[in-house]
Amino acid sequence: MSILSERLRMLREDRDWSQIYVAQKLGLKRSSTYANWEYGIRDPDTETLVRLAQLFGVTTDYLTGASELMHIPELNESDRKLIQAIRSLSPEDKEYVLGFIERIRGK
């Protein structure tokens, strides 16, 4: 069983939803399509993976196992300002800032 299939099953069961209910919420013609994702027989396409993440209120990275974080943390105002300032930097300055951060973190 894949991480995706395990997480789909867990998220569905945590909500006391049936496979049929999830399939209906996604607009699938057959509930067996969703069941095959949970059993690890097939994987959803990218668009459907996004819809699954939205339905369960988690990130696609969490569903696929790329991250253990279920949700993206909320940013406060100072975080938003910092991100905006970094985006306005030239590519060379961004590279310098990232190198500086890596040195500070000891990488």
UniProtKB/TrEMBL annotation:
Coiled coil: none annotated. Pfam families: HTH_3 (PF01381). InterPro entries: Cro/C1-type_HTH, Lambda_DNA-bd_dom_sf. GO terms for molecular function: DNA binding. PROSITE patterns: HTH_CROC1 (PS50943). It comes from the Bacteria. SUPFAM superfamilies: lambda repressor-like DNA-binding domains. Keywords: DNA-binding. Residues 8-63 form the HTH cro/C1-type domain. Gene3D superfamilies: lambda repressor-like DNA-binding domains. This is Helix-turn-helix transcriptional regulator. It comes from Paenibacillus hemerocallicola. The lineage of its organism: Bacteria, Bacillati, Bacillota, Bacilli, Bacillales.
